[in-house]
Amino acid sequence: MNVDVLLADLPAPQALSADEVRAEIDPRSVVVVLDDDPTGTQPVANLPVLTRWDVEDLEAAFATGTPAVYVLTNTRSLDEATAARRNREIVASALTAAESADRRVTFVSRGDSTLRGHFPLETDVLAEEIADRGGRAPALTLLVPAFPDAGRITVDGVHYWVVDGEATPVGETPFAGDATFGFSNSDLRAWVEEKTHGRIPASDVAALTLDVIRAGADRVAEFLSALPDQTAVAVDAVDETDMRVVAVALHRLRDRDALLRVGPTYVRAHIGQEIVAPVRAEDIPFAHDRGGLVVVGSHVPLTTRQLDELVRQRPDTTTVELDVRRLIDDRREAHLDERARAVAAALESGTVIVHTSRELVTGSDGDESLDIARRVSSGVVELVRRVLAIAPPRFVIAKGGITSSDVASEALEIRRATVLGPMLPGIVSLWQPEAGPAVGIPYVVFAGNVGDDDSLARVVAILADGR
Question: Which CATH architecture is the domain 3-270 placed in?
Answer without folding.
Answer: 3-Layer(aba) Sandwich (3.40)
